[in-house]
Amino acid sequence: MSDIKINRRDFIKLTVAGVTVLAGSQIIRRAQALETLASNGRQWAMVIDQSKCTGCDYCTLACRAHNDIPPEISWNVVTKTGTVGAQDVYTPRPCMQCAHAPCVDVCPVRASSYRPDGIVKMDYDRCIGCRYCEIACPYGARSFNWKQFDGPNPSVPEWGQPDISRRPRGVVEKCSFCYQRIDRGLALGLTPGIDEDATPACVVVCPVGARLFGDLNDPESNVSKLLRGRTSYRLRDDLGTSPRVYYLSATEESQS
Amino acid sequence: MKIKLPKFTPWMAWIGGLVVVTAAGVAAGLMVFWKGLSLTNLTDMVPWGLWITIDLSSIAMSAGAFSLCAVVYLLGLKRYEAVARTATFIGLIGYTMAVLTLLLDIGRPDRFWHAMIYWNKHSLLWEVTMCVTFYLAVLALEAMPIFAGFGWLRSHWPKLSERMSRVHHYAPYLAIAGLALSMLHQSSLGALYGVLKARPLWYRPDISVLFIISAIAGGMALTVFASMLSARLTRHANVENSVLDRVSIIIGWVLVVYLYFRFWDALSMTYTYEPGRTEGLHLLTGGPLSFNFWIGEIFLGAVVPIILLLNKRTRALPLWRMLALALVVGGVVAYRWDTNLSGLFIILSYLPGEPAVTYTAYSPSLIEFLTGAGIIGYGLLAFSLEAIPVVGD
After folding, report:
1. Among A97, B7, B195, B324, who pairs with B305 as Cys (CB 3.0-4.6 Å)?
2. B107 in contact with A at a CB cutoff of 8 Å?
3. Which of B115, B196, B351 sits opposite A108 (nearest CB)?
4. Does B38 contact A235 at a Cβ distance shorter than 8 Å?
5. CB under 8 Å to B254, separation ≥6 — which residues?
6. For A6-36, what is each residue's pLDDT tens digit?
7. How far apart are CA B142 and CA B91, in angstroms?
8. Domain B13-249+363-390: which topology?
9. What is the pLDDT at residue A90?
10. What CATH code would you report for A43-255?
11. pLDDT tens-digit readout, A219-251
């Protein structure tokens, strides 16, 4: 039965090989930690003021154009969620960019991952289309490309020009906080949340200024100041996902 | 001039029928690869459907392999060896069926290997993928001596056949590896559902336990059923009936354990209202899945087979015993189907205030049925052509 024989020399060789692999993986992990510092400690967040939102859906359309999204899919959904006084209240829902995102945990191939600035990023070249993340997301923020999107995008050019390429058939996609705009803007020395070219398309297009964007780690950013001044809430906070999208409720006083 | 045709037998009709079903499945599968998943009735609300049920069920039905190999090589009960060999063969077929179904089900089958390269150690689906891959290798090694015994191999490549039959010496190590890998992923398939906090009906630890227990019952049931069927169909297949009788008793008791846990699992959910979970349970106990649940899972899938298998008189009658074993298999499939859909049919609102629940529905499309039937047809064909001579060799 004992056809396998390992002598001492082979054993030492195997052990050395094993230790080398382990040490190598630790070095790679350190390198990844250094990358985190490269975000300069910025943590992007979005604030949605429901007392201002009129449910016009411009955000959804601008999002479709800038991210070249097919008409069947919405990265941003605006739902009517009640009334305050005589005013309808709407709840727009982009991806929450959770700090503890269920989708990142469940993905079998790490196609969803955290960027150092907190954005949950999809790698469309890696996704295998198993759709486990769709099932795990409490916000329904993920959509699968059931078919290839070809032909013209009805939202282009009226609502903007695509900044990113279309996703292929068979992968899951979701809102990205337009990080392509953030990254390009930062490279040009612009400030996301202040300069339009460095800010998510939905924030830029909003005609009533119901959306704000900025760095949570900068106490002087517009989002930090707003969140200090007013009471905010997050969707399904009870789940412990720690979303990066904050809502300011519509109240009787805010309507008047 | 007259050509003498071979006599048409029921066996040929069976094989011919399976070839037709498998061919239709292959054609439908190619359509899916070409046209994409829009041919299915799956949606963003119900992204997993018939295929995931076939996938989970064929893995569950393969659990006879690790259970019986552990009995033979770890407990040293050599008289179960013949039945363990049948189980290994069924396992090999079952896992290839699962891999085929997964290839259909993922949106990018060309990237199936990504899990091997891009590890996410937090993901149960990653763990399952790795375990299935390694276990498929273990099963192939375990089945090596069976393949080595085939006449044509022995006469054409005697040296290779000799090598392959020598793998038998490693059977105990393979049994340990198989046991470890199976215990990891059979339960992880249930935990896939159990870890999702967004789905209150699933978010509980019990599913993983129930999945492995029901898999052991279903896997052994299919093995005994297949052994009995091939003994009836071919003369040289001859497994000791006392062995099959013992295994049938074990299946009966495993079902008792399963039913016990299932009872507490379901009952504990009936206390206090919890949004999403209570509605999901109601889908099973009184909604669109209730027939499946009460009749398919509980009554026909567990209660009836327990009675038939633990009662000496009915167990001794081959037809009653085979009926009971077939019911066990059906019950396990029903459990997988119900678990998947009861969680997906409930959509829990993310909006503030009282969590509102809405419902959705799903029934498979023709193309899903055709590919599903094709995969099952392939499994039956592989077993009919290869494994029947294997039983009791």
Report:
1. B324
2. yes
3. B115
4. no
5. B213, B216, B217, B220
6. 666 776 777 777 777 777 776 666 655 555 5
7. 10
8. Formate dehydrogenase/DMSO reductase fold (1.20.1630)
9. 95
10. 3.30.70.20
11. 999 999 999 999 999 999 999 999 999 999 988
